[in-house]
Design a protein that fits this description.
Strand 2 (about 35-40), helix 2 and strand 3 (about 60-65) form a beta-alpha-beta unit. The protein contains eight helices and seven strands. The longest helix has 29 residues, at about 105-135. The protein is globular, with a radius of gyration of 18 Å. The chain has a seven-stranded parallel sheet, sandwiched between helices. By secondary structure, the chain is of the alpha/beta class. It folds into two domains: about 5-190 and about 225-250, Rossmann fold (3-Layer(aba) Sandwich), CATH 3.40.50.720; about 190-225. Helices cover about 45% and strands about 15% of the residues. This is 3-oxoacyl-ACP reductase. Belongs to the short-chain dehydrogenases/reductases (SDR) family. It holds the Pfam family adh_short_C2.
């Protein structure tokens, strides 16, 4: 299927590896120019080289900015390249797992800043330009914990739920009639460094070894496996497509069937 977005330009955050990289690669394969941003310069350089190889000599451009997108300075560094992004994929590493009794105000502010306020700032900086041009796609990578909270990820549960409520409102404003969609993409268990870190925390809390917790988590997923970043990226690319123009304000869950609810 031709997604109809070749030649568009996308900003993809947290794209040096994992789910962010999977989204960037899927967009490049569709002929989308990408600007990728992440904090780690070395990993980001490597990711950019991989994407250039995917694009090929006559393909879309790939630019990268080593910056912390959760800071004003980081966002300024990205927008120094321009504000006219057709596609924005927001993504920031989730806050650490733990016991809520141990989180102080600073921990909560940091979580909300990264996983709620940063996506809002990126939407605010780009959505009106998209609306004026008559096309825009914003995809926020959040978490399946928005629908099914994970006890040791309370910081993430809270911050990402706040973003979900905000998007539910703003996606249904006048921008919807101007060709701009805003959706959330909720990953379940994908084989990433983030999942490994969460499982390590769960293993420590339960007193079990890592491999036992890892395999038990996998067995509890109806698909009997963890997802991979490439298939996650493909879903993201579809949400950015012309064909998805009638989908907005939605929470799209990709979790191998792990969430047991009907709605």
């Amino acid at each position: 299927m031709d997604l109809g977005i070749a030649g568009r330009t996308a900003l993809v955050c947290g794209a040096s590896k994992g789910l962010g990289y999977g989204c960037a690669e899927a967009l490049v394969r569709e002929g989308v120019n990408v600007v990728i941003v992440a904090r780690g310069a070395e990993a980001l350089d490597a990711a950019a080289k991989q994407l250039v190889a995917v694009a090929g000599p006559s393909g879309p451009f790939v630019k990268h900015v080593a910056a912390d997108i959760t800071t004003e300075a980081g966002r300024a560094a990205v927008f120094a390249l321009g504000h006219d992004f057709d596609i924005v994929v927001t993504n920031a590493g989730g806050p650490p797992p733990g016991d809520f009794r141990n989180w102080d105000r600073e921990a909560w502010i940091k979580a909300v800043d990264a996983n709620m306020l940063t996506p809002i700032e990126l939407i605010k900086a780009t959505v009106d330009g998209m609306a004026k041009r008559g096309f825009g796609r914003i995809v926020n990578i959040t978490s399946s914990s928005v629908k099914s909270p994970i006890d040791i990820l309370g910081l993430s549960n809270g911050a990402r739920s706040g973003l979900t409520g905000f998007v539910a409102g703003v996606a249904r404003t006048s921008v919807a009639a101007q060709g701009v969609t805003i959706n959330n993409l909720l990953p379940g268990s994908f084989e990433t460094d983030r999942l490994k870190g969460t499982m390590a925390g769960a293993a420590q809390k339960s007193g079990q070894d890592f491999d036992t917790v890892w395999e038990a988590r996998k067995k509890n997923i109806p698909a009997k496996r963890f997802g991979n970043p490439a298939e996650f990226g493909a879903i993201c690319a579809f949400l950015c497509s012309m064909q998805a123009g009638y989908m907005t304000g939605q929470n799209v869950l990709a979790d191998g069937g792990a969430y047991p609810g009907t709605y």
